[in-house]
């Protein structure tokens, strides 16, 4: 066997081994499993892990936008007509949300932390100055007090007198800054003198700028990657006490800022929202891409805030039991000091039409009003998100207060909140690099198969060329048959008629001649 033949057969053997090994690794998913195990180990809340520092001090900027609904016709509404509102905003604040007092528990399987939020006004992203711009909206303190005392004739009479003295009505006109961050309310101040436990200041975000309100104990994911950052307890509670069913009182999922790696499209992800006083779920919507990073978009479906008729599981959110609103709204008075507060998506998106039609100025649409999360499925990291909610107040007739005698029951919009985040460029570059390395490692068997396929082509070419050369050599060394033709008479020698061969004759010896 020649060296050339040895080289050809060696190529064939190597090719076969590469194809066999590559296909075997691909079928067994060896490298995919290695990559997944590595991600499970790295994406845990442990000192020195790849995600711990970014969880403790999130680098992407978070912005909180407030859109108020300014009431154009308060007097007409009090007379029984439909309210007309105009959306005013945004008033934008940069939100800083580091984790503080981080302490590991249960041998590192859990971590305790406070989640304070600090807000800094961004005039360049706002429509005006919140300390100058005024808005006419529902007088939430007055309406809350009226609903609190409505079952007591004496207390209702007392509060009615206080409202006349302080000139408090169903609506108030105040600067945006006061409505958000707090002001000393005249009616609450009078009540505070009688009941010191009643706070005399009111604001939608009163005492929430920099305060340590939310304390979480989370699973680190060290024992099970599926439990990564799932909430074990919130403010010392492992379950809620507000609602009327065990399922409704469960604290499920994460706080919405982190999720476990290796997400699937058919998963239902759970988020606990302290603003909603409950857990909700989000479902896969579509594939998207953010700054070159692939992501799955998850969003709350209609059944999250559906009425019990549409989704019986929501019956537990009716307090008292059986006292339910329609689809798209949830009454959260139980966790808002009995104030008639209702939460919905902005402009009553995904809600029954009657709520949007009950107030002029509502125009619900998916693009502006849908809450969504864009999550990288490999790591579970949010690359873009928008949490949108609307605070409403129930306004209706209260028999013990004549001021309400002409009111038609209305879920009245006060403010729509849009909390947004997009991954910053530096974090996006790091994530793209991580995903590239992960992809290369996961697809290493395909590289082996590709090399094996190339060598297979080379082997085939060499074999074809060798076969052709062998055929040519045989043709060059074959015998050619003798061609018989008639001899030329001129070529007949004097010794005989045969040109080729021996011509033997007998000549006379000398002795014989004599």
Automatic annotation (TrEMBL):
GO cellular component: lysosome; membrane
Protein name: Lysosome membrane protein 2-like
One of the GO biological process terms: protein targeting to lysosome
InterPro entries: CD36_fam (IPR002159), LimpII (IPR005429)
Keyword set, alphabetical order: Glycoprotein, Membrane, Transmembrane, Transmembrane helix
Family: Belongs to the CD36 family.
Predominant cellular place of this UniProt entry's protein: membrane
Organism annotation: Scleropages formosus (Asian bonytongue)
Pfam families per UniProt: CD36 (PF01130)
